[in-house]
Amino acid sequence: MGGSAMLTYLLFLGAWIALSTARHFNRSGLITLEEAWIPAQFFDLVNTTPVPGNPPEGVSDAQFLSDFVDVHNQRLKTMDAVGISYMVLSFASPGPQGFSDPVQAQQVAVEGNNALAAVIANDTFRFGGLASLSMHNATEAAIELRRAVTELGLLGAILNDYQQSGADNSTLLFYDSTEYDPFWQMVQELDVPVYLHPRTPVSSLIKLEWSGARSFLIGAAWQFAAGTSEHALSLCINGVFDRFPNVTVILGHMGEHIPSDLFRIDQQLGLEAVPMKKTIAEYYQTNIVQTTSAVFSEPLLDFHISQIGADRILFSIDYPWQSLEVGANFMHGVKLDAKTKAAISTNNAIDVLRLNR
Ligand SMILES: *[C@@H]1O[C@H](CO)[C@@H](O)[C@H](O)[C@H]1NC(C)=O
Ligand SMILES: *[C@@H]1O[C@H](CO)[C@@H](O)[C@H](O)[C@H]1NC(C)=O
Ligand SMILES: *[C@@H]1O[C@H](CO)[C@@H](O)[C@H](O)[C@H]1NC(C)=O
Ligand SMILES: *[C@@H]1O[C@H](CO)[C@@H](O)[C@H](O)[C@H]1NC(C)=O
Ligand SMILES: *[C@@H]1O[C@H](CO)[C@@H](O)[C@H](O)[C@H]1NC(C)=O
Amidohydrolase-related domain: which residues (predicted)? Predict the structure, then answer.
């Protein structure tokens, strides 16, 4: 074999190896990535917390509960019926963030990740997963994330707002301090996204802030967005994205309201000596993307496109709290040009989740 023939052969071999090891997934329809699941062995444990909330209209409580555990039956059947080609699953909130005992939180995370990898192992063409992590110790979180990504094939992490800790569950750990740098360093190194997802408040906060009729505001009506947007903004103002410029954080529920208020947030933060290098609007172009989960309103989608751009928005549903049919039909029906629609419904997720590598 001559030199150039040999080179061609090696290039061909390299391309073949790259192709044969690339992730193989169904890209023909919608991709959706804020979709809950509960490992059967943890169902009783996590079901004692205020989750799971209310089922979608027309779904019985019994069906709702079984939807959390199911993957290959009603979930997949409905995905086929409504054109969802690939779904990314994650352990329902609060997951490990709901355990103040570091040992128990770590056990829930590790066993949850093993169970998630196992349940989707025979159908990675249709399902991916995000890792749950105990956030009591940043180094331990980094090590488990690496294991989940490199050994289990998961696509990134989901963190359910702050990690509760302390004997009375009242110490709240936010991931904005330099103590969490080993975690963010690993996120950047692995080049995977982190989904920052809501959680319900610890009981001491409920007593202080959300009692009486205000308790109706706990959860999806308001408190989820208030808590998660505070945490996301705290990552910005404490310079996490300045220290780790390649990190991508995904927010659900149309950015937990942040794009609706960028004018006022940046105007006020600009008047103060905030230890961050960019504006929140700028971090939204470099480090933050958001999904449509549970917000199926076309005027709102148009507004958010106008504020942050269609390339920062990914379709998602929030099953089983939301109906797969309603969510998918919303996306199929939006009046956007074909390229923008394909970006939001499928292609942006392929980029953010690095599905092409
Ligand atoms: C790919 O996804 C579509 C839904 O968008 C589904 O109808 C089709 O059966 C899937 N293909 C395979 C081979 O699973
Ligand atoms: C994967 O395994 C489950 C049982 O755990 C089964 O119901 C399902 O059909 C299997 N899927 C594939 C694609 O083999
Ligand atoms: C965090 O975990 C690492 C790795 O297991 C360990 O070396 C370190 O001592 C832990 N830090 C704390 C404060 O417990
Ligand atoms: C702390 O939370 C755990 C479960 O998350 C619960 O069993 C325990 O009673 C709580 N402790 C206090 C003092 O609220
Ligand atoms: C960030 O990403 C760019 C582009 O992919 C890459 O060249 C650079 O090395 C990355 N930086 C870090 C610190 O990972």
Answer: 94-355
What is the Å distance from ligand 3's center to 140 Cα? 7
pLDDT single digits (tens) 197-233: 999 999 999 999 999 999 999 999 999 999 999 999 9
Cα–Cα distance between 121 and 79 in angstroms, integer?
18
- Report CA(115)–ligand 2 centroid distance (Å): 14
pTM, 2 dp: 0.94
**C-beta of residue 65 within 8 angstroms of C-beta of residue 52:** yes
What is the CB < 6 Å shell around ligand 5?
A: 188, 246
Three-state DSSP state, 204? helix
CB 249 within 8 A of CB 277: no
Pick from 51, 104, 43: nearest CA to 70: 43
Structure tokens given for 281: 């609007």
Q: Domain 23-352 belongs to what architecture?
A: Alpha-Beta Barrel (3.20)
Residue 251's H or E segment, with its range, is: strand 249-251
71, 72, 85: residue to mutate for ligand 2 pocket, most atoms within 8 A of CB: 72
* Beta strands, E only, the chain: 30-37, 84-91, 127-129, 131-132, 157-160, 163-165, 171-173, 194-197, 249-251, 288-291, 313-314
